Amino acid sequence: xxxxxxxxxxxxxxxxxxxxxxxxxxxxxxxxxxxxxxxxxxxxxxxxxxxxxxxxxxxxxxxxxxxxxxxxxxxxxxxxxxxxxxxxxxxxxxxxxxxxxxxxxxxxxxxxxxxxxxxxxxxxxxxxxxxxxxxxxxxxxxxxxxxxxxxxxxxxxxxxxxxxxxxxxxxxxxxxxxxxxxxxxxxxxxxxxxxxxxxxxxxxxxxxxxxxxxxxxxxxxxxxxxxxxxxxxxxxxxxxxxxxxxxxxxxxxxxxxxxxxxxxxxxxxxxxxxxxxxxxxxxxxxxxxxxxxxxxxxxxxxxxxxxxxxxxxxxxxxxxxxxxxxxxxxxxxxxxxxxxxxxxxxxxxxxxxxxxxxxxxxxxxxxxxxxxxxxxxxxxxxxxxxxxxxxxxxxxxxxxxxxxxxxxxxxxxxxxxxxxxxxxxxxxxxxxxxxxxxxxxxxxxxxxxxxxxxxxxxxxxxxxxx
Length: 466
Fold this sequence. Notes:
The protein is an alpha+beta fold. The protein has helices at residues 8-18, 76-90, 122-137, 206-220, 244-251, 257-261, 322-328, 361-366, 417-422; strands spanning 25-41, 44-62, 65-71, 103-104, 143-161, 165-184, 187-197, 232-238, 282-285, 306-311, 314-315, 336-337, 346-347, 351-354, 370-382, 388-400, 403-416, 424-427, 432-434, 439-441, 445-447, 449-452, 455-463.
């Protein structure tokens, strides 16, 4: 790729230096990322930000150790220094490098841009946000402020490793976030909706504006009427889509192979065992077209793929990078991901979701005599080892005698991930991936998405009023 000013000889030279102290494997990861961001507040676009990041990361693996170094310069001397540094960190005696030549990684482009960002002018972007602003104020009489943010990030990647794997990839992502602040007397509330896809400016359509405004209107509907339910253990129905964040946090992380390889996950000794209902299949998928969490190729040169972590209730696979795959003697699953060239890749989720069940959401709700329905999560905390979690629910409803009744808000849900998975007793046939701006933090940040069908968890602790 001319962008980085390197050729085959340079790449092989860097790999040779990286392996010069006896490493088992090495890779080089070049990245050039740009970001363009507009923010509207107080009725006008008043912030425009542009940034760029550029550099190369070099990794060496030897006998279970990892050496990693990076350079923000692609001057040959700086790259050679990074390669030697990574080699020294990995330690080992003097050895030799044996690459097998270039072997281009063959992959399907899951996120081609149909229209570049430059084809959607700055004026057009400002007008797009202004239209959302004007419509948002008309959604509810109590809206007092609108904040809208539109961002386009674009990364260009060049990768080469000591196996000869080579690829170039372009990774676009467009994100739109709209927040409304509502005030009624002394009470203040907020509603936020976001969308994010790996595509070009073709994402910014009138239909997307309609979708954003419709969801904002729905989220505002009961903000001032909702209250807290009485706390205690009770059945919880989780709505389709964004409830998948609980699946991601409380369960998905425990399937990442580094936690299992180190014995810190509660699932470390459960491979091949039944861990939940045979009606449940949980997937981590890197192949969804234009999805925020999808990867054409991961950051270790492994093609993106669809991985069943749980199939028909049986734990069938962890999420592997090259290190954990070698440890378990299996193929990597395309989950080796990194925040940028400054970070070494580790097992990370992509788009994590549960597949369809065999009933309707209405049937699930009708089956509950007393409980709650939740469909709008915000943040939460999870302990990976034990799987205990606390999630904050922005909104939902009481369920009384099989019907949704009073709206609720600001509720904590407390439970244990593996137990909650095992306690799912009904799954609807309405699985949906939420296309919000989900970002996962695990020492470093990665773009992800999540989803699930509506499900019934027979018992969770709900932190409400006394």
